[in-house]
Design a protein that fits this description.
With 393 residues, the protein is mainly alpha-helical. The chain is built from 13 helices and nine strands.
Length: 393
Amino acid sequence: MANFCRESVFARRSFLRFILAGFLFLSTNALGLSALGKIQIPLNQSELLTQKVTSQLKMLANFSPSGTSPGIVVASPSREYPNYFFHWIRDGAICFDQALQIYRENPDYQLRAKLRSFFFDHMALNRRAQNDTNALTGLGEPKFNVDGNPNSDPWGRPQNDGPAMRALNFISLYNMIISENWPEKDQLVPILYDGRLPSDSLIKKDLEYVAHHWRESNFDLWEEVQGFHFFTLMVQRKALLLGAGLATTLHDPGAAFFYRSEALKMTAEIEKFWNPGSGYIVATRYPSGANARRESRLDSAVILGSILGDAGDGFMAPYDDRILATLQKLSDAFKSLYHITEILSSALPWEDTRKTPTTDTIQIPAGMRGLFQPKLELRFITEPIFMQKILAP
């Protein structure tokens, strides 16, 4: 297990951490780019909006691309060095959440229709995945092939953040279906939550798994370390709290009580991740296996857990003093690891003297310039969906 796909895992983890490093820097500083040693002034609102839309379109291009099963979210079109042409439950859930946000914000009828079609495809895909007996770790299986079948390669499994994040996706979808009064709602609601045990519905099946398995050791979001993880517990806690609210709405009071009780126990466990001696929240407790080598356990996964696991009750929210202390420790660590942070810090504050900013005034590596082109085109491939695709087991 220690040697499974090490190069791919390292590359994927490094890329995610690079993205998070950028987010952490942007949370406290104006946006700047360093190219050839020259400091660039902040992007203006128009440029930020252009980048936002471009990023969204790039993400949507990975939804059910040609040659994949409808409902798939590929991690990357890259198929070698590294090969990320797979569907991860956690990564797909993060993208699905953003797709829901795009749907809410965008009034374009054609885009919304394509997104609705994808939502149905994704429901059908995950319904099959939940019931696939070939999944080596059941609902904790992290990775699927693009045909929708479980991947059986040596990997870090189980990863128990996936079911929690998938449940959160479909709770959000349920709320959207009800608030917009979708014509299919009477058929969709029991597929999402049936109130039975054992359950055959998307949300309740995942919530029951989370509620009964959260105490079990599993792999972290970087797929490297086995143990008990801040990130995983935060998204599990959020799923159970929101799931309890849904269970109450759908007249399943016993489940609502059980989910809230387990979430309360999780709260007490999550508190133990704060290390007052070190002054930050550790990412993992009781790490085990060959990859349990990071003595400090200072990890950006804690910040991601605070953001994605924020249940709206203030617990370990991004503004919590312990999260901010961890953020400061990470910032200090990044300064010693990445030269770009020293360059940017030495240049602050910037002075924007442009009257009519354009992307041509920003030095961008040639390979990235396509991300900033003003003409954007939607590449979103999905097949028309009918209700029987979801109703099929």
